């Protein structure tokens, strides 16, 4: 029997970058409090080393099975819906959707919807190497994704890996990626940059991002909240 409790109980697969999990937790709690409701959240911790190794090797079946096991733990705890708050595991999104024991709020769908809403037709990606090399796992079929030069891609990936490892961002990280974003937008005549890495939320925020962009983590949180606390029907 489907629960009618408000808000719905949400399950989060944490551990895929501790900093990213902290961002999602705080953002979700703040969003609940803004609505005047108490959050009903569950979290389970993933082995980020295992997940990243499987994602890098494109071993999607094994990765999907591992993530499905974590989702099962959330379901047994009472979660009604769930999400994977990281980009690299999205390499197995199709396989996971077929076996997931809970409805998933897709990070990739949230970004695709935001890109369409902003009418971006020519973009570049900032994020982990696998995310950039797969052009957001092929999910931007109606948008031209421009790949930075090899040196630029290496620089973005290395900076992102450093932020994940340290769980924080420095002024150097911000200045480097901000300068590169402006350079790419001008050189490649881009409509904007897609911030396709959850830990980029520690570098960029609505007050300091002075170039056209879609912030993947933040639009995902918005999509999650729409499912946790759906707007009442007008009918």
Structure description:
By secondary structure, the protein is α/β, with parallel strands linked by helices. The protein has 2 domains: 10-107 and 220-228, Rossmann fold (3-Layer(aba) Sandwich); 108-216, 3-Layer(aba) Sandwich (Rossmann fold). The protein is built from 9 helices and 7 strands. A 4-stranded parallel β-sheet has the order 5-4-6-7, with helices on both faces. A 3-stranded parallel β-sheet has the order 2-1-3, sandwiched between helices. The radius of gyration is 17 Å and the shape is globular. The relative contact order is 0.16.
Q: How far do the termini sit from each other?
A: 23 Å
Mean pLDDT metric: 91
Shape: globular
Strand order of the largest sheet: 5-4-6-7
Number of helices: 9
Number of strands: 7
How many structurally independent domains?
Answer: 2
* Strand coverage percent: 5-15%
Q: What is the CATH topology assignment of the largest domain? A: Rossmann fold
Content-based structural category:
alpha/beta
């Amino acid at each position: 029997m489907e629960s009618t409790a408000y808000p719905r109980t949400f399950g989060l697969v944490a551990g895929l970058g501790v900093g990213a999990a902290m961002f999602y937790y705080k953002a979700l709690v703040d969003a609940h409090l803004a609505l005047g409701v108490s959050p009903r959240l569950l979290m389970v911790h993933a082995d980020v080393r295992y997940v990243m190794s499987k994602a890098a090797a494109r071993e999607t079946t094994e990765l999907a099975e591992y993530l499905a096991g974590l989702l099962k733990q959330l379901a047994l705890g009472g979660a009604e819906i769930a999400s994977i708050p990281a980009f690299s595991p999205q390499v197995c999104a199709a396989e996971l959707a077929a076996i997931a024991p809970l409805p998933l709020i897709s990070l990739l769908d949230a970004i695709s919807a935001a890109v369409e809403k902003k009418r971006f037709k020519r973009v570049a990606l900032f994020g982990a190497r696998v995310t950039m090399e797969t052009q957001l796992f092929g999910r931007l079929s109606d948008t031209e994704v421009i790949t930075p030069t090899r040196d630029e891609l290496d620089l973005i990936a290395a900076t992102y890996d450093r932020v994940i490892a340290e769980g924080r961002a420095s002024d150097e990280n911000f200045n480097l990626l901000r300068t590169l974003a402006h350079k790419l937008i001008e050189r490649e005549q881009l409509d904007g940059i897609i911030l396709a890495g959850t830990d980029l939320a520690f570098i960029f925020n609505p007050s300091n991002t002075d170039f056209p962009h879609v912030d993947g983590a933040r639009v995902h949180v918005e999509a999650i909240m729409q499912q946790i606390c759906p707007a009442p029907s007008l009918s």
